[in-house]
Amino acid sequence: MTDHNDPLDTLDDQYASAAFRRLVRHLRHRHDAQNIELMGLAGFCRNCLADWIRDAGYEGDKAQARELIHGMPMEEWKATRQLPATEEQIAAMEKSLTRNKPDLR
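Above: the chain sequence. Below: its structure as tokens.
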């Protein structure tokens, strides 16, 4: 649900896309920030960004979208960057997800 009074909706796409690319590159560099930790703290992660670009019209499939965001195929990401989630991280993620709005489009 879009808030038509939100000034963010008036932000030029040039600036929004530059900020998005900077965010993605930052997350690529900061692979120490695990997806499960991002989910536990903020309720979104790299995989969510991949889903969101698909929701916005990106024509690639799920694997292509994730590769675009992760900067490598998902299987490579998992093998080289992803650590096993702890019970505490999973609990934090589940609690955090309850705080998400159902639709922020």
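The domain at 8-97 is CATH 1.10.3340.10 (SMc04008-like fold).
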